[in-house]
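Researcher: Dear colleague, please comment on this protein.
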Amino acid sequence: MALGTISSISSTTSDVPKPGVHTSPSPDAETAELLGDAGQSSGESDGDGGSLAGGFGGEMLAMAAAAAAESAEALRESHVLAERRRRREIKGLLEALRRALPGEFFRRGRASKWEILARAVEHVGVLTRAADERDRLRVELARCRAVIDSYTAAVPLSRGRD
């Protein structure tokens, strides 16, 4: 009795898919099956045993694939052109920055991007320190004028000999 039970179990397990084994049909087979069913249901035939709808569906798939490829190519081309414009703009801006910096920063005519940016940062630092010093001097000048005004108000100026 135990032997019969084992054979009945093994016959029922052969229908159960094994783990890790993919048994579903491929997407292409499913598409062909759907297109074939669509052609068979319409009853039309191309004379070779195939359906017109199946052939038309295949052409449609090919056209869709070609359109997708063209779209991807157009997208890539658009990206390449946008990247070229961006690089050209960066190049122009770096050149304008190089021209805006004092000539003493560059010993030779041409400078690398790194050199332009490093010198620009250096020059901005110089300008910032100069602006801070100017502001400090303005405050000191205002303080000195206030002191002078206070002395002038305390001591009357003589207008000459009386």
Observations:
- DSSP finds four helices and no strands in the chain.
- The CA atoms of residues 8 and 14 lie 10 Å apart.
- Residues 1-14, 37-53 have pLDDT under 50 and may be disordered.
- The first helix runs from residue 2 to 13.
